C-alpha cells in the first residue's frame, strides 16, 4: 500500500512538473526582465568644420579613427549644430530647444553674453532626463553655459570634470564642482579629457552611462600636444592639423577602451561639432563644401560633421541626408534608450524632433522639414524648408557674409550648397511662403521663451524680446 501511495505521488509530481514546463507562468510570477539599455558617448568638437575630417573629404588632414567610426556607422550630410557660436550651440544640444527660446540674445558667455548669466535652471536638460531614468551621467570637457546655479552639477550631471569657460578665457579645472587645478596646460586638455572618458568606461557595475564630451579642440589658441607638435609643420596651418589629428587619436583611444571593456556593442557613440571654423583660425586650405564660417548664418557656420555608431541598430557605412539638428539629439537619444521625457511644467518647450528612424532606416521620411538660422549676434536671419533656404534679414549682414543683394535671397541647397545663385526673382511664391513660415515660427518662439538664467541676486535689466523686435528689413 505504501508503495502504491508513493507511486501515485511520484506520478502526480511528474504531471505537475510537465504542466509547468509546458504552460507559461503568469507574468507576475516570473522574474522581471531587465532590458539592456545602451550607454551613450556624445562627443562634440569645438570649431571643427566638415573640411577638417578625411571622411568628409579632407586631403590635408587625415582622421583614420573617425573614418573608422563613420565606416562602422553613419555620417550625416545635413546636420546643424543649433547655432553658429559655441554657448548657444551647447544650449541647443542640452535643452532640445532653439537657444532664443531659452533666453539667448547674442554672443558667447563672456563675450556679449553677460558673465553672471547662462542657460536657465528651469531648463530640463538631456542629462537630467537620462539621470532620472537611472543613467549615470558624466561630463568631461568644456561647459560654457553658466556657473553657480547653472553649473553642470546643477543641470543633471552626477560626475563632472570640466572647465566652465572656454579654453581661451580661464585656466581653472573643476571636478564635481570643486576647483582641482589652476593654470592647466592647454596642450594637454584633449588627452586629459580622453583619460576621464576612459575612466568612466572602466567603472564597474551594470548601470548604463550617458557621457557628454564637449572637447576644447581645435578651438584657439592652437597649442599642439608635445607628441604631435611639428608633425605637420610649425606654421599655423600645421599646428591646426596637429591638434585635429591628436583629437582623432583620442577618439580612437575611447573606441579601444569600449572594446576592451566589452561595451562597444552596447554603446551609442556620436561625434559632431558645435559650429564651423573660427575666422582667422588658420587651417588647411581644402576647399570647404559650404560658404560662411563661425558666427555666420550661411551653411558653413553651423552645418557640421555628425557621425553615429551603434552596432546592430545603425547601418554601417551609410550617409544620411534628411535634415537633423543638435536639438533633435535629445528626443532621438531618449527614444533610442527607451526614455520617456517628462518635462516639468516650468521647463522649456522643445523644438527637437525624434530622428531615430532616419538614422536606422536610410530613405525613411524626413522627421525634420524646417530649420531657423540665427547669426552669432543673435538675429534671426534665415529659414530652410526642405532643400530651400531663404535669407530674410538684411539688418545683420556683414561684408564678409558676401550676401549683397537688395532683398530676400533664395537658394536651392540641393545643388547650390555654397549659396551662390539667388533664385528669389524666379520663385517669388516660394519666397512668400518661406517668409510667412519664418514669421509664424519666430512669433511662437518669442511668445513662449524662458528668461536667461542668472546667478542668485543678479538681475538682468533688459526686457524680454518681443516677436516684432526680430523682424529685419525684409520680413515685414
Could you characterize what this model shows?
This protein has 476 residues and is of the alpha/beta class. The chain folds into 2 domains: 39-369, Alkaline Phosphatase, subunit A; 371-470, 2-Layer Sandwich (Arylsulfatase, C-terminal domain). It has 9 helices and 20 strands. The chain has helices spanning 2-22, 64-72, 86-95, 126-132, 189-202, 236-260, 329-336, 356-360, 428-447; strands at residues 39-45, 74-76, 79-80, 108-109, 112-113, 117-118, 136-142, 159-163, 172-175, 178-182, 209-214, 267-273, 306-309, 318-320, 324-325, 370-374, 380-385, 388-391, 409-412, 453-454. A 10-stranded mixed β-sheet has the order 10-9-8-7-11-1-12-13-2-14, with helices on both faces. Strands 16-17-18-19 form a 4-stranded antiparallel β-sheet, with helices on one face. A two-stranded parallel sheet has the order 3-15. Strand 8 and strand 9 form a beta hairpin. Helix 5 (189-202) runs parallel beside helix 6 (236-260). The longest helix has 25 residues, at 236-260. It is globular and about 60 Å long.
Which characteristics define this entry?
476 residues, alpha/beta, Alkaline Phosphatase, subunit A, Arylsulfatase, C-terminal domain, ten-stranded mixed β-sheet, four-stranded antiparallel β-sheet
Amino acid at each position: 500500500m505504501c508503495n502504491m501511495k508513493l507511486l501515485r505521488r511520484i506520478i502526480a509530481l511528474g504531471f505537475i512538473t510537465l504542466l509547468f514546463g509546458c504552460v507559461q507562468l503568469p507574468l507576475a510570477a516570473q522574474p522581471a526582465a531587465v532590458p539592456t539599455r545602451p550607454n551613450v558617448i556624445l562627443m562634440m568638437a569645438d570649431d571643427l568644420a566638415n573640411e577638417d575630417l578625411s571622411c568628409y573629404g579632407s586631403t590635408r588632414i587625415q582622421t583614420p579613427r573617425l573614418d573608422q567610426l563613420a565606416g562602422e556607422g553613419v555620417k550625416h550630410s545635413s546636420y546643424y549644430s543649433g547655432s553658429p557660436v559655441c554657448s548657444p550651440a551647447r544650449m541647443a544640444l542640452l535643452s532640445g530647444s532653439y537657444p532664443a527660446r531659452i533666453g539667448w540674445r547674442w554672443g558667447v558667455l563672456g563675450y556679449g553674453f553677460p558673465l553672471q548669466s547662462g542657460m536657465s535652471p528651469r531648463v530640463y536638460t538631456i542629462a537630467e532626463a537620462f539621470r532620472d531614468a537611472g543613467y549615470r551621467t558624466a561630463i568631461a570637457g568644456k561647459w560654457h553655459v553658466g556657473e553657480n546655479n547653472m553649473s553642470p552639477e546643477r543641470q543633471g550631471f552626477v560626475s563632472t570634470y570640466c572647465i566652465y569657460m572656454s579654453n581661451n578665457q580661464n585656466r581653472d579645472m573643476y571636478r564635481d564642482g570643486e576647483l582641482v587645478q589652476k593654470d592647466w596646460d592647454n596642450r594637454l586638455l584633449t588627452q586629459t579629457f580622453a583619460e576621464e572618458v576612459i575612466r568612466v568606461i572602466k567603472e564597474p557595475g551594470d548601470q548604463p552611462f550617458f557621457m557628454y564630451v564637449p572637447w576644447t579642440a581645435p578651438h584657439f589658441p592652437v597649442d599642439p600636444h608635445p607628441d604631435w607638435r611639428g608633425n605637420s609643420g610649425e606654421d599655423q596651418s600645421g599646428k591646426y592639423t596637429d591638434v585635429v589629428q591628436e583629437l582623432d587619436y583620442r577618439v580612437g583611444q575611447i573606441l579601444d577602451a569600449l572594446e576592451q571593456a566589452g561595451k562597444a556593442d552596447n554603446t551609442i557613440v556620436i561625434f559632431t561639432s558645435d559650429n564651423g571654423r573660427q575666422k582667422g583660425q588658420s587651417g588647411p586650405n581644402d576647399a570647404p563644401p559650404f560658404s560662411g564660417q563661425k558666427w555666420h548664418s550661411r551653411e558653413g557656420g553651423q552645418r557640421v560633421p555628425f557621425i553615429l555608431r551603434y552596432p546592430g541598430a545603425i547601418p554601417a557605412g551609410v550617409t544620411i541626408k534628411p535634415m537633423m539638428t543638435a536639438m533633435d539629439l535629445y528626443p532621438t537619444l531618449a527614444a533610442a534608450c527607451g526614455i520617456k521625457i517628462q518635462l516639468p511644467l516650468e521647463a522649456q518647450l522643445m523644438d527637437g524632433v525624434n530622428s531615430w528612424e532616419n538614422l536606422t532606416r536610410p530613405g525613411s521620411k524626413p522627421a525634420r522639414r524646417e530649420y531657423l538660422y540665427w547669426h552669432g549676434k543673435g538675429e534671426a536671419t534665415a529659414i530652410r524648408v526642405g532643400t530651400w533656404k531663404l535669407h530674410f534679414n538684411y539688418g545683420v549682414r556683414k561684408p564678409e557674409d558676401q550676401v549683397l543683394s537688395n532683398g530676400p535671397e533664395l537658394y536651392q541647397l540641393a545643388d547650390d550648397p555654397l549659396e551662390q545663385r539667388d533664385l528669389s526673382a524666379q520663385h517669388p511664391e516660394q519666397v512668400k511662403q518661406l517668409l510667412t513660415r519664418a514669421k509664424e515660427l519666430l512669433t511662437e518662439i518669442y511668445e513662449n521663451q524662458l528668461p536667461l538664467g542668472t546667478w542668485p541676486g543678479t538681475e538682468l535689466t533688459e526686457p524680454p524680446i518681443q516677436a516684432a523686435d526680430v523682424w529685419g528689413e525684409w520680413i515685414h
